[in-house]
Amino acid sequence: MADNYLEKRFEEVFGSGRKTTRTKTVWKEYSSLDTLLHHNRSHRSYDPSDVPSTEVLRKIVWVNTIIPSAANQQVLRFRTVSSPDETSKVLSDIKMGAALPELHLPVPGTEPPAYIIVMSSKPESRFVSIDLGISLQSMALRAVDLGYNALMICNFNPEKLKEDLSLPYLPLAVLAVGKGQDSIYIKPCNEGDSLKYYRKDGVHYVPKIILDDLLV
Ligand SMILES: Cc1cc2nc3c(=O)[nH]c(=O)nc-3n(C[C@H](O)[C@H](O)[C@H](O)COP(=O)(O)O)c2cc1C
Q1: In principle, which of 97, 129, 154, 185 could form an S-S bond with 105, CB 3.0–4.6 Å?
Q2: Is 70 exceeded by the pLDDT of residue 1?
């Protein structure tokens, strides 16, 4: 794959004139990966009319055929969900934006149009959890790469979701996928500051600890 693959892909999806991100940061120059990472914010409002096709959802899950896996065991399994009947079941089982309970997210009319349910075919363990994180982040970046957004969701009742969707395994995580509609900014902060995300004048702010405070 060419070194500038992501750069080219970004231009295809977002247009060559759009090199800056909506997310403020202390960095002045962006690589393609930085750009993807910046656009990969947790959206909790989506355009419900723009439903990712089965092909798009399969392209997102496809990343799992090439990513690292502990001892290469590849225990994760996936179910794509995009029919209104099933998305309404998932919506009733998940919680979005628990840190902002007064907003009751998602606002009606902005529900995620699709989901990818991640399960494990083997019992949970440290390695399964690490594989899960790698998988979720890889799929979220792929979603952004394809012009969509994603939200990782672990706040749900696994038994209920398993039953509602007749899943073969207990779900570990849910990835909401769609065209995100939130305006999100990263707010650099220091160790010890509040890390709670918040909204002001319709903008969603996400505090992120600066590099110097991460290095120990
Ligand atoms: C493992 C994991 C689980 C998460 N679960 C939820 C969730 O259940 N509901 C939700 O609204 N957001 C969830 N999030 C999103 C986080 O709240 C979000 O990553 C954080 O606020 C930082 O925002 P950012 O992703 O835009 O950087 C989860 C994120 C991760 C990594």
Answers
A1: 97
A2: no
Using most ligand atoms within 8 A of CB, pick from 104, 107, 149, 153 the residue to mutate for ligand 1: 153
pLDDT on residue 86? 97
For residue 164, report the distance from its CA to the centre of ligand 1, in Å: 23
- The SS3 of residue 142 is helix
Distance 13 CA to ligand 1 centre (A): 25
Containing structural domain, residue 69: 42-181
For residue 3, report the phi and psi dihedrals to the nearest 5 degrees.
-60, -35
Using CA positions, which residue lies closest to atom 6 of ligand 1? 153
Q: Are residues 160 and 94 in the same domain?
A: yes
CB 165 within 8 A of CB 118: no
Query: Residues 168, 77: contact at Cβ < 8 Å?
Result: yes
Confidence of residue 54 (pLDDT cuts 50, 70, 90): very high
The whole-number pLDDT of residue 22 equals: 42
Kindly give the distance from the C-alpha atom of residue 153 to the centroid of ligand 1, in angstroms, as a whole number: 6
Examine residue 12 and state whether it is found in any structural domain, yes or no: no
Q: Does residue 10 carry a pLDDT above 70?
A: no
Residue 211 sits in a domain of what CATH number? 2.20.180.10
pTM of the complete model beyond 0.85:
yes
Domain assignment present for 17: no
**For residues 34 and 43, what is the distance between their CA atoms, to the nearest angstrom?**
18
